[in-house]
Amino acid sequence: MELFWEIVISALLVIGGFFGLVGSFGLVKLPDPMTRLHAPTKAATLGVGATLIASMVWFGVYKDDLTLHELMITIFIFLTAPISAHFIAKANIFRDWKQDQLPPPAGNGNWAVHEVESDTSAEELQEAEVSQKS
Amino acid sequence: MSPALIAALPFLGAVLPALLIRTGRSHAALAAGAVSGLALLGLLLHLPAALAGQVITAKFDWLPWLGLNANFMIDGLGMLFATLILGIGLLIILYARFYLSNQDPVGQFYTYLLLFQGAMVGIVLSDNILLLLIFWELTSLSSFLLIGYWKHLPEGRQGARMALTVTGLGGLSMIAGMLILGNIAGSYDISQILLAKEAIQSSDLYLPALILILGGAFTKSAQFPFHFWLPHAMAAPTPVSAYLHSATMVKAGLFLMARLWPVLAGTPEWFYIVATTGLITMLIAAKIAIFKDDLKALLAFSTVSHLGLVTFLLGLGTKVGAVAAVFHIINHASFKAALFMSAGIVDHEAHTRDLKRLGGLRHLMPITATIATIAALSMAGIPLFNGFLSKEMMLEEAAHTAWLGSPYVVPVLAAIAALFSATYSFRFIAHGFFGPVRDDYPHKPHDPPFGMWASPAFLATLVVLIGVMPITFAGPFVQMAANAVVGGDLHMHPIKHWHGVTPALIISGIAVVGGLILLASFKPLKAAWEATPRPEAKAIFDWIVGACGAAADWITATLHNGSMARYLTLFTIGSVAAGFWAFSGGGLGPETREMLPITPVALVGWVMLVTASASVVAFHHNRILALVLIGIVGLIVSICFIYLSAPDLALTQISVEVVTAVLMLLALNFLPKRTKRGAGPLKHVWHIAIAVVTGLGTGGLIYTLMMRDFAFETMSKYHLVNSHTLGGGDNVVNVILVDFRGYDTYGEVTVLGIAALVIFALTEALLNGASSKKLIAWRPDVPRAGDKHPIMLLVGTRVMMPIALLVGVFIFLRGHNLPGGGFIAGLVVSIALVMQYMASGFAWTQARQKVYYHVLIGLGVLAAGITGIGAWFNGVPFLTSDYGYVKLPGLEKFELATAAGFDLGVFLGVVGSVLLALGGLSRLARRAAVGAEPVHAHIIAEKPEARSPEQPGAFPPETLLPQRWAQARGYTSARQDDADTKPVKAKKTKPTEAEEQ
């Protein structure tokens, strides 16, 4: 049984390490910011995720102390990684691309970052305002 | 009642008027009166004992190793002064109730008055000169508040500043003198010092101590050449003038001279300094008083003159002189307070105090005229009034005093002063109340209501009673106080009206007749006076203050010119030089520690740290990039902490790093995004040299330190060993913070809160002052992207909010035994909240924030303080912690220490401070964005209750408010028709600009 757990943990660590390596390699290798954005997001989610699960298993099996901290960390990373990627992408669209070089977005309107005073949450913030008053 | 309690009562009671003013002026006055009355009652219970020559004491150790003990005593002198202070205070409270108008902040007045009263009572009842000094400075501060009470008047503010400057400087000089005195006597207790006459007078330091102490006494008692502040303090409301300048503030100097009379008096130095100053003051001030047209200015200079008289008597150093001094203090307090109050009544009723515009008032306001005349005649020294008796005693003493061998100087000068004194007293009566009734008063005068003239009438009655039967009404008091002044064994001669035809009587006669003659020839004299040039004290004072200010500005501007680079240069060079100096002065022990092996992990960290630091240097011109790089440095430092087993520090470092990054970004919003290349190559090399030397020096120092054991055993061992047994926690860092060094933490939380409030106040000034125009005109220096609140961030932060808060709670609760604690938890929660501000916008989030951050800071300090005080109920010192373990089903056994309460305070303080400070900065950006909207729109946006139209103000609509109070503040009655006396409902008439973008 011990061997089984050791294999599981080792496999998870190897997977984590592999994705970490791939992510870093991609960061160096990929040609422009938009494509480069893919690399670290993989490393952050899969790489770190696998390592965290390995840690959880190790504590559960060898220390008899199943902690949920790692799950918590995973949740945080899953929540934050897309947001930071989103922001990097937005910054890239705004800084490195002129508006006429960009393909038009789906639907009506323009790219939000290129529209002064635009606010994708306007509806959300407005609705909350109304519901609170009523 | 304990003497300590008598002194403390006014301080304790000072909150009452401030609170009760909300229910009306009368209640505030009543509360102030009750407090004073209670203290007076407590004092008078000791009167029989004091009359019998006993001394009542109360002793508390405060800082015994400094000689500072809270020792109080009531002896004869203290008894007399405390009675005057509390008794006249009571009369003033009554008078002020009618004198002050509805528009004045009356609650503040009574609070200030009680604070002042407490400080004065503290001075006269102290049995420790250091304690006395504390009260002395408190009188300077509280009198500043009283004199500047009418804040809208520039004269009031200037007069208050001048009084504070002069008396405050005198207080500083006195501190030095008192320390010398206590050092000679070997004790700071007055009762001990008074026994050490020989030691003090034979000491080499007697003269410096004397001059320094007199510096304090003369400034306080407005003796020449420091007399100029007193007339300017007349800008205060009349009750203040009446109180400060009849019975209290200015008498403090006299009290001090009387208190130390047994040890300081009797030497030629004392005589020539004190008596001469007194005589000069008496003469000069009396001369100026004659020509003052303002009733209060006349009285102010007459006060200075009479203070000079008492100083002169004390300066004589004879026992009879001391008796006369004490007697005149009583008499002066009674007639001068009555005169000031009468002058106030005239001002109140006729709307002018200018003697040139008054006259004939005896027909219009007979009661006031009678009171004023009685008091003024006493001041002139007319028989059958009390002023006559003490002035007679003074003249008698003066007649026997030789000055530098000449027997004529003193009597002649005293006679002239008495003559002047009679002149201004007669002028006060004649030009104010006699003569024909005029028809050009600014306001038709008539007698005021009873409450207003009751106080001066009472004093005028005393004037007559003491004047007619001095032994019955003042004798025992004078005997008691004079006995205490001279140090016992006093055989007082009975105070009599008729001593036969003595020199004093002759001088008195000359003075009265001469006074009448001078008054008759007033017009030509006045013209001559106007024609003579004379130094204007205020101009000289302003010039000196201006010169000091300019000098301070020059020094500040030279050292502190706003260039960050210059401070850093000076600071770094200073520290390196200090380190080098220390290093060159001592030896270096042998290396006692082995070098640790360099692990690959440490090496990687080191390489990253060096790379990031080098990158900061290389790319610092791009400020945003530099910020990112500094963030990397911070993260690696945190990893270092983890690697070196300091998880607490790592957690703190990471959270501080995040908050700092947000702060820097907020600042960068307004700052240029790139640093200009300003310095020339020479300066550049110089800066590089400093940086290299400092870096090498610091690195070398740390290397040498870490390769050796410390010369002495460090504190940390004690903390590690005792953390669990004494503090009940296993997390030593946290136990140090909340227990071992709890005092420090308490101070730090307070300072943090203060800093946040200051940031808030500064931004407030920027938001509303002239600088707001600059903010409105400001435009971003880089193009702004659209999409202010990306929906993804919005959703993400809202999902994370509860988890983040839970993490905060978790870190807080485990803090005592595992890494964590209130400080880190506070930062985590702050970050969680800051995320909301970033994602949903300032306005939206602030509107949902129901607790003010100011309140959080206050609660934090309170929680920490209350936890600390809780230890007292356990019979242990402040902040000692207690702990126990609690087991709740479903949770691990966790510990509940009282330190958790303290930690909660830290937590609240940190959350409040961080958010208030960051919020303050982001409000600047918001103001810039709001632009030309109404000035207070941004404030309304931040006060949740200001937003909803149902709750227009701080009061729910159904609150009952006092009628006049509400009207003064713009609230209108819900029922206009029958709203005469009934309380009104709270409804603000002002429109609320509630709607927000």
UniProtKB/TrEMBL annotation, chain A:
Keywords: Membrane, Transmembrane, Transmembrane helix. The chain crosses the membrane at residues 6-28, 40-59, 71-89. One of its GO terms (molecular function) is sodium:proton antiporter activity. PANTHER family: ANTIPORTER SUBUNIT MNHG2-RELATED. This is Na+/H+ antiporter subunit G. It comes from Pseudothioclava arenosa. The lineage of its organism: Bacteria, Pseudomonadati, Pseudomonadota, Alphaproteobacteria, Rhodobacterales.
From TrEMBL, chain B:
Residues 67-109 form the NADH-Ubiquinone oxidoreductase (complex I) chain 5 N-terminal domain. Residues 609-673 form the MrpA C-terminal/MbhD domain. Keywords: Antiport, Cell membrane, Ion transport, Membrane, Transmembrane, Transmembrane helix, Transport. One of its GO terms (molecular function) is antiporter activity. Residues 687-763 form the MrpA C-terminal/MbhE domain. GO terms for biological process: monoatomic ion transport. Residues 126-403 form the NADH:quinone oxidoreductase/Mrp antiporter transmembrane domain. It is a multi-pass membrane protein. The chain crosses the membrane at residues 6-23, 30-56, 76-97, 109-125, 162-185, 205-230, 270-290, 297-316, 367-388, 408-429, 450-478, 498-520, 564-583, 595-617, 624-644, 650-672, 684-706, 749-770, 791-813, 819-839, 851-876, 896-918. Its main location: membrane. It comes from the Bacteria. Residues 942-997 are annotated as: Disordered. GO terms for cellular component: plasma membrane. Pfam families: MbhD (PF13244), MbhE (PF20501), MnhB (PF04039), Proton_antipo_M (PF00361), Proton_antipo_N (PF00662). It is found in: Cell membrane; Membrane. InterPro entries: CPA3_Na-H_Antiporter_A, MnhB, MrpA_C/MbhD, MrpA_C/MbhE, ND/Mrp_TM, Proton_antipo_N. Residues 794-915 form the Na+/H+ antiporter MnhB subunit-related protein domain. The keyword Transport applies. NDH-1 shuttles electrons from NADH, via FMN and iron-sulfur (Fe-S) centers, to quinones in the respiratory chain. The immediate electron acceptor for the enzyme in this species is believed to be ubiquinone. Couples the redox reaction to proton translocation (for every two electrons transferred, four hydrogen ions are translocated across the cytoplasmic membrane), and thus conserves the redox energy in a proton gradient. This is Monovalent cation/H+ antiporter subunit A. It comes from Pseudothioclava arenosa.
